[in-house]
Specification:
Layout (H helix, E strand, L loop, with lengths): L4 E7 L8 H10 L9 E4 L12 E4 L8 H5 L5 E3 L6 E3 L9 H5 L6 E3 L4 E3 L5 H5 L5 H5 L5 E6 L20 E4 L3 H4 L13 H7 L9 H25 L7 H16 L19 H22 L2 H21 L4 E2 L10 H13 L2 H24 L6 H12 L12 H22 L1 E2 L3 H5 L4
Parallel strand pairs: 1-9
Antiparallel strand pairs: 1-8, 2-3, 4-5, 6-7, 10-11
Helix pairs in contact: 8-9, 8-11, 8-12, 8-15, 9-10, 10-11, 12-13, 12-15, 13-14, 14-15
Pfam family, one: Fer4_11
Keywords: 4Fe-4S, Iron, Iron-sulfur, Membrane, Metal-binding, Transmembrane, Transmembrane helix
Organism: Paralabilibaculum antarcticum
Length: 443
Amino acid sequence: MIEEKNAFIFNTNKCVGCMACVAGCSIENGTSLGVNWREVNCHNKIKHPSLPVFHFSLACNHCEEAPCMKNCPALAYTRDKETGAIIHHAEACIGCKYCTWACPYDAPKFNPASSIVEKCNFCVDRISDGKQPACAQACPVGALDFGQLSLSDEDRVMPGFVDMGIKPSIQLVPLREEHASPTIENLDEEKIDPERIKEWLPKSKDKVSLEKEWTLVLFTIAVAGLVSWQAAHLFGKVEMPVIPFAVISVLAIALTSLHIGKKLRMWRFILNLKGSWLSREIFSFSAFLGLTGLHLITEIQLFGYAALVFGIFCLISVDMVYKFLTRKDGLSVHSGMVSTTAILFFAWIADIHILIELIILAKGSLYIWRKGMLKKIGASYFPVLSIIRILFLFVPYFFYDIQWELALPIVLVITFIGEIIGRAEFYYESDVPTPEKELQIIK
């Protein structure tokens, strides 16, 4: 028997998009202007008569397997056992915005004024007193309701709703047929190309964008460089002076700190090693830096090998942090992944000819394949930049047999620039699925 639990009930057939639920939530919780815990999205934003018109009111669904709570590195989320509400604790939030990536319902909202995240709290005080949440009470047409329900997967089938198996606490009343496909009375109306309709759609908000993530581009490249440098030094291939290592390490830490809202709470980054890849990334990177420093100062090899283990795990963690992202090319791997960048750097620094050839061939093939997929689906693939990136991958190979003191530094500079291009493209081509974007998919 499925246990009953508190849940929202939403009937798209009744919703008129009046935004009363948004206003009710804002008044009840005193949210800042422009930071709405509940949002109403419309399927037909351009109001075209040949498209179905329905609205979708959505806030936090207080999921049983809540990804925000599971992945928050700072443990800023807890569950209220009595009501099932997922509660966000502002005093514990570091403003890293990782929960906004993890949630497919766009529920956590970053507030620039406070530099932390906020979200719907299920009106936990109201429902504890037997009242409805403010949003449900404010709905004038009965489209949004609340109650004790036994939910199944069939209760969550709706255009615009991403079901990731996390058991959200919401029941969705299916669209009636007449709402899914409107009747057009004017049979002489000229049909409009769906591609034109896509052009007219307002641009949806991107959770992940190169403009916002440039510090992460540099940080992730720095991590790859430091780990590959340490590995080559450990095996006696290159020197690793303490001061340059320390300077680059401090710069890397400074870069990642620019991405968080509450910098004095950075220590909370490592509190969720059990569930968050972001916690694992920061912890393993910190351990790598500390152990590498000890190795350089004491010259005890054990510290060096321990540092390498943490370094490799850090590279894996960096790539796993982005497991929530979807990419335009639809591929599961990317030529700009940090682990492949580290292998390329290591191959050059350690002067391992066969590894250089294999990793260049692998990254180049994957890059060309990805660009072909982007071109096939009509997405931007920047052919001129792509040629430059390919050249910066293969040109260093021609320096391999040159016996010149500056050959390796030049190779590393060219490779570094090429990897920045590849990593920047990773962020440009990636995003997080949201209900707003799902509703804009025209079929």
